[in-house]
Amino acid sequence: MPSVQCPACGERAFARSTTGKATPLYREIYYHCRDAVHCGSIFVVAMETLRATVASRVPAPMIALPMTSWRHADNDRAANDDGPPTEPVADAMTS
Fold first, then answer.
1. pLDDT digits (tens, 9 = 90+) for 33-89
2. Which of 15, 57, 65, 77 has the least C-beta neighbours within 10 A?
3. Nearest-CA neighbor of 49 among 77, 25, 17?
4. CATH code assigned at 28
5. Within-domain flag for 69
6. How many domains does the chain fold into?
7. Residue 87 belongs to a domain
8. Within-domain flag for 66
């Protein structure tokens, strides 16, 4: 399960259980705040499948997801980005 922050205190929360309200495209997940002593928040996160970026080789006959194409950002690869990253300079890290 993806990690989420507690909306009350900002601490990380962990997935504890899911509800019966689940479909192939939608699910509700109960999260518990890791700071049980000071916060103790329990909240529900909805997880929904929105679209596909690559079509399935074995599609489900009753599910039709909208297709979108993956867009690369204009700055994904700079013109000089042909090799591995360089080591950081010690002076640049302290200033």
1. 999 999 999 999 998 888 888 888 888 888 888 888 766 656 555 555 556 666 666
2. 57
3. 25
4. 2.20.25
5. no
6. 1
7. no
8. no
